[in-house]
Amino acid sequence: MEHAFNYSILILILPAVMFLILGLGGKYMKPVVAGILGSISLGVMAILAYMTAYQYFFEVGKDADGIYQAINVFNFEWLRFTDSLHIDLGMYLDPISVMMLVVITTVSLMVHIYSLGYMKGEKGFQRYYAFLSLFSLSMLGLVVATNIFQMYVFWELVGVSSFLLISFYYVKPSAVAASKKAFIVTRFADFFFLVGILLLSYFTGTFDFASLTASNAALAVSSTAGTSFLGFSVLSWAMMLIFMGGAGKSAMMPFHIWLPDAMEGPTPASALIHAATMVVAGVFLVARLFPVYAFGAPDVLNIIAWVGTITALFAAIVACTQTDIKRVLAFSTISQIAFMLTSLGVSKYGGHEGLGYMAGMFHLFTHAFFKALLFLCAGAIIHAVHSNEMDDMGGLAKKLPITCITFGIAWLAIAGIFPLSGFWSKDEILVAAFEHNKAIYFCLSFAAGLTAFYMTRLFLRIFFYEKKHYHHEPHEAGPTMAIPLIILAFFAAFSGIIPFARFVTNDGVPYDAHVNMQIAVTSVVISLIGIGIAFKLYYKKNELPDKIAGSISTLYKWALHKFYFDELWLFVTRKIIFKRISKPIAWFDRKYVDGFMDSLASVTQAASSTIKNFQSGYIQQYALAYLLGALILVVGFCGWIVCFVCK
Predict the structure, then answer these.
(1) What DSSP string describes 254-296?
(2) What is the pLDDT of residues 88-127, one digit of tens each?
(3) Are 125 and 181 within 8 A, CB to CB?
(4) C-alpha distances in angstroms, 73 versus 1, 46, 91, 495?
(5) DSSP conformational letter for 467
(6) Helix 438-463 and helix 517-538: axis angle, to 10°?
(7) DSSP at 500
(8) 3-state class (DSSP) for residue 564
(9) Residue-wise burial string across 256-280, b where 16 or more C-beta atoms lie within 10 A, e elsewhere
(10) Model confidence pLDDT, tens digit, residues 499-546
């Protein structure tokens, strides 16, 4: 069976080769050639990914009982520590990794084609496409990793790719600051991830996903690990630390602060990395290790559910006040990813009890298309009006008809309006939450209503609200930008009708998912209420938004300033970590550690100054020293003999 997928290794080889070609030889080729080469490479990868998905789901992925099996396409040993503990490199296919191959290559291909028009004339065009290839390699390597350490290697490479793309406009201080912020915050979280990996591998004796996700292995580890600290087992602490790494990459509270600033990078890169693929790495991580969480650390799943719920609400509230369209979409991304993690947190293992798992993966799938579409539409708008601010927009519906229609499809999809894709996946999440915890369900329902509100606000303020007089007449994007919008709009509209539960479940057993009419109708009504309120406030310019903001000025101010989390992080890092911890440690290092070493140097120098006169080069001094030494030895020997005789 493994041999049936031998061609799929090209999905990893092609972006690696393209990164080397464009990175080393890009400066010797015309920009358009670099862009076309990168796009053709992604096109081939996308075809291979779709072939892999078709063959896995419809031909050889199931065993005799109709259960989807994990397949190692190839796997070879890289580093060996013990007989059982070793690090391998390979390619691992199962329902979620195959699904991610389709998502990553599809969105990446659209971004590559779109960038041919959006990035035209930019300095460093070839470098940009080289970085896109590096990111594609990193993300694809992450999702097909056969073991958690291989995943960690590509996890860090994804962070490097993100840093390079955020800082693409390296002459802008804001872009440099944003890239450093993203890199440092995610590295801080990744430290916990690494500690969690080491703990988990120490007690399980393996890095391999196939061994880790076996339910009986997880139960055995849980029963033998014992209680270590604050009532949590070693396994629970390991899985909590691993989740913290995922929370950093997926911008969950309190690690969310890097994602809004990451919008300083090129908008197509934001669509690829910070909306559709990279930021869902944390969701994929929890899903990949879900059997371990479900059997060995269910208490951590509960924490994940509440972290996701709080983050979803927080980000939705903040998004209602932002005026930079990319930052609105950034906080929307944070909120939607929190929905996915909450869905995983309220899930159990196997059968219909695994609805939350399926729903989270389903929302990851649909969200990738409509959120990438939203970002690419935002890029077309920015390209037309040369501004990110909603205050500089308005009345663009007739000037940008394709962008308006495609943006409208994505807006209704993320709002959860029937029959678009977001309705189907969000409905499953709400059903899973309702069955698990009513409080979480009500919080997510409110967040869903806020999502419908702020996305309608964004849509209306861009395309209606108030007609503007632009210095340059806005016009529709060219074919290279418009075609990806239309293709993604198709996916955003219809990807929800896929019977997802027949392909992706946490135990590999397909089943038929049914719409819960009570939850579905309620969620649509809540979304329509949010849309209706936004229409009342923002379809035409009026004084109501300012009056409402004034009536809740304190809450509005806090939300506008993102509840001062950035200031809180600065206070913690500068006033506590740097001043109260790092500064005393630095003083101790200078005073005592450096002082001790300086003292050793001073003593050594003084001793050398004292004894260097013995090497004067005068034979008389050497003869005198020799005679004195011999005399001391003779006197000492005679004294020893006298003492021995006297005894």
Answers:
(1) TSTTHHHHGGGS-HHHHHIIIIISGGGHHHHHHHHTHHHHHHH
(2) 888 889 899 999 999 999 999 999 999 998 888 788 888 9
(3) no
(4) 8, 18, 5, 28
(5) -
(6) 40
(7) G
(8) helix
(9) bbbbbbbbbbbbbbbbbbbbbbbbb
(10) 988 998 888 888 888 888 899 999 999 999 999 999 999 888 888 888
Task: Give, as one character, the DSSP assignment of residue 503.
Answer: T
What single letter denotes the amino acid at residue 220?
Answer: A
Residue 357 CA: distances (Å) to CA of 284, 345, 373, 522: 11, 8, 25, 22
- Other beta carbons within 10 angstroms of residue 540's beta carbon come to 11
Q: 515 is written with which tokens? A: 């719409």
Q: Which of 236, 240, 215 is nearest to 227 (CA)?
A: 236
Q: Return the ∠ at Cα 331 (arms to 389 and 495), rounded to 5°.
A: 105
- Look at residues 443, 413, 190 and name the one whose alpha carbon lies nearest to residue 307: 443
CB hemisphere CA count around 251 (13 angstroms): 31
Which residue from 201, 214, 279, 200 is spatially nearest to 247, judged by alpha carbons? Answer: 279
Number of Cβ within 10 Å of residue 497's Cβ equals 11
Tokens of 337: 């990813």
C-beta separation of 381 from 267 below 8 A: no
The average pLDDT across 434-460 equals 93
Please state the pTM of the whole predicted model.
0.88
Cα(484)–Cα(68) distance, rounded to whole angstroms? Answer: 32
DSSP 465: B
Length of the chain: 647
The alpha helices in 346-478, defined as continuous H runs, are 355-385, 401-415, 421-436, 438-463
Placement of tokens 């804001």 in the chain: 174
- Please answer whether residues 335 and 315 qualify as being in contact, where contact means their C-beta atoms are separated by less than 8 angstroms: yes
CA distance 227 to 299: 13
**In 3D, which of 346, 335, 345, 308 has the Cα closest to residue 415?**
335
CA angle, 514 as apex, 512 and 520 as ends, to 5°?
Answer: 155
